[in-house]
Design goal:
The structure holds two protein chains of two kinds. Chain A is an alpha/beta fold. Chain A has two domains: 189 residues, P-loop containing nucleotide triphosphate hydrolases (Rossmann fold, 3-Layer(aba) Sandwich); 64 residues, no CATH class. Chain A is 40% helix and 22% strand. Chain A contains 13 helices and ten strands. The longest helix of chain A has 16 residues. Chain A starts with a strand and ends with a helix. Chain B is an alpha/beta fold. Chain B has a single domain, classed as P-loop containing nucleotide triphosphate hydrolases (Rossmann fold). In chain B, 38% of the residues lie in helices and 22% in strands. Chain B has a six-stranded mixed beta sheet, sandwiched between helices. A four-stranded antiparallel beta sheet of chain B has the order 2-1-4-5, with helices on one face. In chain B, helix 3 runs parallel beside helix 5 and helix 4 packs antiparallel against helix 5. The model of chain B has no long low-confidence stretch (mean pLDDT 94). Classes of the chains: A alpha/beta, B alpha/beta.
Chain lengths: 270, 268
């Protein structure tokens, strides 16, 4: 099941300038595409458009076409599209349903709304909680968790829906390094199961370890794209306002200072 | 210079529920630059919300300038300790960027040139000059975070507390936050910041306080907290040392918490 954006442009309602222009993007099964770019380069907008929320819920004007496995989905209503594409927002307070009394109910909310059978909802919910190491929070009130814990709950809710395609806007922004790693591992596993993932992130260290491909946006257009290792090592990335992965930066600084690479290369690779 | 002292601080959000803080003792001298790190849910945000009276202790006490904070009003505390929330949408309410940034200093009694200067400086420091008239909700999340920072910065409080200021910031945004911390510290004002970005922490702060399950488990300068001897404690609270520290340890160069420290050690 491939999600394809062809010649997609987007303009928010009330805005004169388009926020996205000429986006051609393919999300084949098993791909983890990392989306990078400076603030307001269009990452969040592209997440909204790729998931179908824009224009269906957000309004605005879309150009171009989006297709799922060859079928044009431009005319599909949101409820039909949301069975196939999951979206995670950067701010977990936007994502949480606000109606669940416990974390368990919150994570079960998505699959329940997809009319998944009761026993399977329970199984999926425990499995999603376990994947992110938060079974211990199951009985807690989602409104009374820390910001990072809420973000893990929001991601668990998406995992429990088991969408074919997952679009995530900075899913680890508020997470500690171990939580970030758990989300990364979960995304890698989903991709291995044949699902495809578009993930906007500032954490290029995370993208370096999980992405197959990288797309870099600049002023609403795709400025760089390619295999993850190539793009993340490209000096042009820094010019777009994207932070380099730690290893790339360290390597660059040491090389610039004239430290012979045989002194640190092995230690950097381990 | 405003000293902060936290003594035996316990916080329980609801009777019988989790002890979010379980006996915290912490003394921060005026002018210090302190990073507060630890796993999600370890009590970092709960701790800093006591510093400006948003939360009151279940047990123990908080002293601001040697005065028990429980005897001070939120308004009195607000003029000493400015707190920037993790989620900007919980503090932004102004109809324009300027209105948002003016609100704090105006409420501290500023007007005229002084108010205009405070607003101008705060907008400049956060890269929002020229966005005066913009509706805050026309800014993306990362710039709304910078706006929330500007609105507290404009109050020029002796203590500035930042809850995850670099979250969602691009490289330029992280640099802006770093320069705000540096310039506030250069005026001998205190900065306390919560962060999960270990590189930012190691490069920007002189003291790192590590929390786990409502208690402080490590407290010291970056070269001590990120040294190999501390890694087990760091990992017990879901943190990882910066890459430069790992590389330095593999090469037996001692503690190298930053790229610059590693570079120095390798150049010797």
């Amino acid at each position: 099941m491939t999600l394809v954006l062809s010649g997609v442009g987007y303009r928010y309602a009330g805005s004169r300038q388009p926020s996205l222009l000429d986006i051609d993007l393919e999300l084949p099964d098993g791909a983890v595409v990392g989306l990078v770019g400076a603030s307001e380069s269009g990452k969040t907008t592209l997440c909204l458009v790729a998931s179908g929320l824009a224009p269906r819920t957000v309004g605005g004007q879309v150009r171009g076409h989006i297709s799922l496995d060859g079928e044009d989905v431009d005319a599909w209503p949101m409820h039909r599209l949301s069975e196939r594409i999951g979206i995670g927002f950067a701010n977990p307070t936007t994502q949480l349903s606000q109606v669940a009394a416990t974390v368990f109910e919150e994570v079960a909310f998505g699959p329940m709304n997809l009319a998944v059978e009761r026993g399977e909802v329970i199984e999926r919910t425990w499995s999603a909680l376990a994947t992110l190491g938060i079974e211990g929070l199951a009985e807690r009130d989602p409104q009374r968790l820390s910001g990072g814990q809420q973000q893990l709950v929001a991601v668990a809710g998406l995992l429990a829906m088991r969408p074919e395609h997952l679009v995530l806007d900075e899913p680890t922004a508020q997470l500690d390094p171990a939580g970030t790693r758990l989300v990364g591992d979960a995304l890698e596993r989903l991709a291995r199961d044949g699902r495809s993932i578009l993930v906007a992130e500032q954490k290029t260290d995370l993208l370096a370890s999980i992405s197959t491909d990288i797309v870099a946006l600049h002023e609403g257009r795709i400025a760089l794209r390619g295999r993850a290792a190539d793009v993340l090592g490209d000096p042009a990335l820094a010019e777009l306002g994207v932070g380099e992965p730690s290893a790339v930066r360290l390597h660059r600084l040491l090389a610039a200072a004239g430290v012979p690479s045989d002194r640190y290369e092995a230690a950097l690779r381990d | 210079m405003t000293d902060l002292e936290v003594e035996g601080l316990v916080h329980v959000y609801r009777e019988g529920s989790v002890r979010a803080l379980d006996g915290v003792d912490l003394r921060i001298a005026g002018g210090e630059r302190v990073a507060l790190i630890g796993q999600n849910g370890s009590g970092k945000t709960t701790l800093v919300r006591h510093l400006n009276g948003l939360l009151r202790p279940t047990e123990g006490r908080v002293l601001v300038d040697r005065t028990d904070a429980s005897t001070m009003t939120v308004a009195q505390l607000a003029s000493r300790v400015g707190l920037v929330f993790q989620d900007p949408d919980r503090q932004i309410f102004g109809g324009s960027v300027r209105a948002e940034v003016e609100f704090g200093p105006r409420n501290l009694g500023q007007s005229g040139t002084k108010l205009r200067e405070a607003v101008r400086d705060a907008l400049e420091a956060t890269g929002l000059t020229g966005d005066d008239a913009t509706n805050p909700y026309d800014l993306g999340l990362s710039r709304r975070k910078l706006l929330a920072l500007a609105s507290v910065l404009a109050m020029r409080t002796p203590v500035l507390v930042l809850d995850e200021p670099t979250t969602g910031q691009d490289a330029r945004g992280v640099e802006l936050v770093r320069s705000v911390v540096d310039s506030v510290a250069a005026e001998n004002r205190t900065v306390v910041a919560i962060s999960h970005d270990m590189r930012f922490v190691a490069e920007t702060f002189e003291r790192v306080v590590v929390m786990r399950a409502g208690a402080i488990i490590l407290d010291g300068p970056p070269d001590k907290v990120f040294a190999a001897a501390s890694w087990e404690a760091l990992r017990s609270t879901y943190l990882e040392p910066p890459l430069s520290a790992v590389v330095g340890e593999r090469l037996a160069l001692g503690s190298t918490p930053t790229d610059a420290a590693l570079l120095r050690a390798l150049s010797q």
